[in-house]
Amino acid sequence: MQNKGKVLPPLDYLLAFESAAKNGSFAAAGRELNVSETAVSRKVRLLEQHYDIALFVRGHRSIALTIQGKRLLASVEQSLDMLRSASRNMFSQRQKNAINLARNKFRIVALADAAPAEIQQRQQAVEDHACVIGQR
To answer: 9: which of 43, 90, 105, 131 lies 20 to 30 Å off by Cα?
Structure first.
């Protein structure tokens, strides 16, 4: 059952597949993802339907990747690692921007209330304070 209009499957299908493959079981993947074993199995089944191919050989209480599953896993791991890295970078940038924004906002408020002679002194004090905060 190939989705002609949808090349990419939902991200949660890929996350479930990756976790199941790495953990060697749907139950362990469910624990890792904080969902039920049934939910992981269902998402993997939907991913298999999306590509119209078996990704796992299912045994009694065991799973093993098919050749196609191994190929897909290599690409999925690489892609998800790139997405995780980009996400970490976004959080890191957000934290840096929050500190700069707070410093700049404080400077604007301090300067708005100051007489012209005090502006330079207050700006230096704010920059010195920001340097101390940044050293933590």
So the answer is: 90
Q: Which two tokens stand for residue 82?
A: 């790139």
Q: How far is 102 from 48, CA to CA, in rounded Å?
A: 48
pLDDT band, very low/low/confident/very high, at 22 (cuts 50, 70, 90): very high
Rounded Cα distance between 78 and 83, Å, is 9
More confident call, 9 vs 118: 9
Collapsing DSSP to helix, strand or coil, 59 comes out as strand
Q: Is the pTM of this model over 0.90?
A: no
Q: How many CB atoms lie within 10 A of CB 59?
A: 8
Judge contact between 17 and 72, C-beta under 8 A.
yes
Burial group, residue 56, by CB count within 10 angstroms (0-12, 13-18, 19+): buried
* Residues shown for the chain: 136
